[in-house]
Amino acid sequence: MFDLADNAALPIKTAKVVKEAEKKRDCPCGRKNDKGRLLAYADCCGRYIDHWDARPAPDAEALMRSRYTAFVSENQEYLQATWHASQRPPQLDFDAATKWLGLDVKQFQPTGDACAEVEFVARYRLAGRAVRLHERSRFVLEGGRWFYVDGDQF
How far apart are CA 86 and CA 130, in angstroms? Predict the structure, then answer.
């Protein structure tokens, strides 16, 4: 089950306030509504991250965006739960010096009935140096859920 370990040490009332404030912030994935405004976390990736066991991402692009958001918040549990078992690492090591700056989804295309690819550029800063991660990721649909399999970096 999803564990709110980050908030476990906080008093329940404080944890609830923190969670409510987090839901109202702009989603790190950068998705916009029809009016060009950034979607709130709760209306975007939060729908899948906070309820991954009951509400899986509807397509590979939504999963890609939610995984980017999970990297921003260092949510190892969600990342591993959405990583295909054939490629899933035993654990993830996050670098505290990494500051995620943005995501640009370049292309999303189904490649079969249960497969899709998403090309994206994720920007981040590491130890003061700007970095661009350009990747074409592969996803597979199994049991009604999309999973990240692997990707090719450019």
Answer: 32
Nearest Cα neighbor of 103 from 43, 31, 36, 151 is 31
How many domains does the chain divide into?
A: 1
89 found inside a domain: yes
Which two three-digit tokens encode residue 61? 């692009």
pLDDT of residue 20: 57
Rounded mean pLDDT of 57-77? 97
Global model pTM greater than 0.70: yes
* Cα dihedral: 142, 146, 149, 150 (round 10): 160
The whole domain housing 124 covers 15-153
Instruction: For 60-125, give the secondary structure using H, E and C.
Output: HHHHHHHHHHHHHCCCHHHHHHCECCCCCCCCCCCCCCEEEEEEEEEEEEEEECCEEEEEEEEEEE
The answer to the question of residue 4 being in a domain is: no
Kindly report the CATH number assigned to the domain that includes residue 49. 3.10.450.50
Identify the residue whose tokens are 């906070």: 50
Residue 75 belongs to some domain of the structure: yes
